[in-house]
Specification:
alpha+beta, 6 helices
Length: 306
Amino acid sequence: MITSTALVPSRSSRTSRIRRRRFSGLASVLALAVILTTFAGVVLASATTNSATLGDVTATLTYQKTYPEGGNIGVPEARDSILTIEVAGHLAYRAAVFSPVCGRLCWPEPSYGSGQDHALRVVRLQPGSPDVVLSLFSGGAHCCFVDQVFSPGSGRFYVKSEIDLGDPGARLETLPGSPYVAIVTANDEFAYEFTDFAASGLPIKILRHEHASFLDVTRHYPALVRADASQWLSAFYAQKSSHYQDSVGVIAAWAADEYLLGRSPEADQFLHQQAAAGHLNSLLTPSLKGTTFIGQLQRFLEREGY
């Protein structure tokens, strides 16, 4: 889903009134305790500020770190999050952080395994001025990582576009043949499609951000697709050697990569050989095995554009 955001006030009137108060003596201590502890028992930490700069573009994220369960327990939430973007010292964007996935409580965090330390980055995703990327996490066992991209719009203003990456999240990477950064993720549609999440394989997916849109350019990087296919095939053989009877998840990811590489006939032949040998099974759905699985997989890959 893509959204556009114009400039909004930097603080709500309620927050401004709180900040304008002055405390003294015992009254100060009591009032501060009220602010730091909400009726739900949420403890607010001191304000956190993160910044990133590239060229004359600087992005700054400020927020309050909270724990819904009190103390330092559970997944934190970020309250009163404000993102500010300046270009050559001029204000280009300032708004509260919001996502339809997690409202105003999104936690700024790069995806697991992304290799990136900070949720806020300034990079070049496309020709023109640098873009600002904010990575958010909704909390939950299998959902969701969200990337918000802020790009130059008309005049000095920046506009926001957003993509829900689901469980795999993404990393930002400059790939061969392009001076611009790509979003490297995996296809979350494969999760639970043939088996449970733990046994599902999620094939590689590479996105370009252009003109407020996220374009699937995975086919343009066959070397990365081949490497991904090799990993899923190795996982399939490892399952066979250990007699693990839930193979359809990882072999589905392998087949998706092979289809992208234009090797669908060879992939289908291999799948039928494995079906005849009794190696295509799902513990979650025992009836989804052999040629039944192959037919469902082929229909699914067609729907997904493979």
